[in-house]
Amino acid sequence: MLQQLRDPLILVLLVAAVLTIATGDLSDAAVILFVVVVNTTVGVVHEVREEQAVRALSALSAPTAGVVRDATERAVPAAGVVPGDVVLPGRGRPGSPGR
């Protein structure tokens, strides 16, 4: 959220709100602060959705490897390949090309 407040436009609006309060025009200051709050809220919601989308895409694209482990052929996450696994080239997710 603090990242949203570092945006140059938001900083200008915050300075404008402070100056408007200093001049005694509270209604204009309230409008400016309302805009800052709405903009920050929209930015935070957008960031959260973006992070969720990236996580979902990462889960979909997690590389897998076809291995023979304990005399059984299986697909495992590439990070889960351990010494002793026999890696099957071109094989990963079941149904992938190379099967």
Automatic annotation (TrEMBL):
This protein's source sits in the domain of life called: Bacteria
Q: What is this protein called?
A: Cation-transporting P-type ATPase N-terminal domain-containing protein
- Organism annotation: Streptomyces cellulosae
